[in-house]
Design a protein that fits this description.
Blueprint (H helix, E strand, L loop, with lengths): L1 H56 L7 H31 L1
Length: 96
């Protein structure tokens, strides 16, 4: 009887660990897939911004291209940081 109880206890623990592993795996897989989509979206936005910048630079005087590239990079970085802060605050509220 004692051996059966030990086996049932180990079986129950193994099922619990397997269930926990499945949940963690799904959570990480969801994070990875979301990250992959975000990466693709970022590449598309990069191409769109580059095309806009290339079109805008046709009207700029010679030598100002570097300044406008840095200006655009700084502006996009500021927008990204603000968006990340807002999203982080929203997600923290939902976790509570």
């Amino acid at each position: 009887m004692v051996i059966k109880d030990k086996i049932k206890g180990k079986e129950s623990r193994a099922k619990h660990e397997l269930s926990s592993f499945k949940n963690e795996f799904r959570k990480h897989l969801t994070t990875f897939i979301t990250g992959a989509f975000a990466f693709v979206a970022a590449l598309l936005w990069r191409d769109a911004i580059k095309s806009l910048l290339d079109r805008t630079m046709q009207w700029m005087p010679e030598g100002d291209e570097v300044f406008y590239q840095f200006f655009t990079a700084i502006l996009v970085s500021i927008v990204a940081v603000v968006a990340i802060v807002i999203i982080s605050r929203i997600l923290k509220v939902e976790e509570k």
